[in-house]
């Protein structure tokens, strides 16, 4: 398949979209700051608890959670860092295509916010969602590592994969 065929297939709704950290570039959180990549999030968490800087999110989040020792505070801080309130025009352009499926490793809600901005209906799910309960006609965004909208103190250590 060449480039033009791939674009035509995407426009016709025959392709899936897999989003990674690059998709969040240009989005801003509810404090007006850039949505962080996993490496930048690791650095930010280290700074917040004054430990040696690492870009390994698993190590940084383990240290952060242990030192904070207040899971409600951790959930709130992650929500502020990862909940998008502003997006760029390219986010809306990508969301406007009729993707057959959308998968993301991102925790944020950038894609969903783009859908809302263009009045596109969608459903979001994580790995713990009973996918059979969602209509086959729905546009579903599957968050493979968890989603900020679902984050709470009961699932932060299981469903929300800070790796």
Poorly predicted segments: none
- The share of residues in extended strands comes to 5-15%
The ordered string of helix (H) and strand (E) elements is HEEHHHEHEHEE
**Overall geometry:** globular
Describe, in plain words, how this protein is organized in 3D.
It is built from 6 helices and 6 strands; from the N terminus they run H-E-E-H-H-H-E-H-E-H-E-E. It is an alpha/beta fold and 163 residues long. The strands form 2 sheets. Strands 1-4-6-5 form a 4-stranded parallel sheet, with no helix packed on it. A two-stranded antiparallel sheet has the order 2-3. Helix 2 (38-49) runs parallel beside helix 3 (57-68). The longest helix has 12 residues, at 38-49. It is globular. The relative contact order is 0.17.
Write a concise keyword list for the protein shown above.
single chain; 163 residues; alpha/beta; two-stranded antiparallel sheet; 6 helices; 6 strands; globular
Could you provide a short overview of the structure?
This protein has 163 residues and is of the alpha/beta class.
């Amino acid at each position: 398949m060449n480039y033009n065929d791939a674009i035509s297939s995407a426009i016709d709704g025959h392709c899936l979209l897999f989003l990674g950290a690059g998709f969040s570039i240009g989005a801003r959180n509810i404090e007006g700051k850039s949505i962080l990549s996993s490496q930048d999030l690791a650095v930010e968490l280290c700074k917040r608890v004054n430990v040696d800087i690492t870009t390994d999110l698993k190590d940084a989040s383990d240290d952060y959670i242990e030192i904070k020792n207040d899971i409600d505070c951790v959930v709130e801080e992650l929500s502020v860092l990862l909940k998008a309130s502003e997006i760029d025009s390219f986010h809306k352009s990508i969301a406007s295509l009729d993707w057959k499926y959308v998968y993301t490793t991102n925790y944020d809600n950038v894609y969903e916010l783009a859908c809302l901005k263009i009045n596109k209906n969608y459903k979001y799910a994580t790995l713990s969602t009973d996918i059979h309960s969602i209509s086959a006609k729905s546009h579903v965004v599957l968050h493979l590592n968890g989603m900020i909208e679902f984050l709470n103190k009961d699932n932060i250590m299981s469903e929300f994969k800070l790796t």
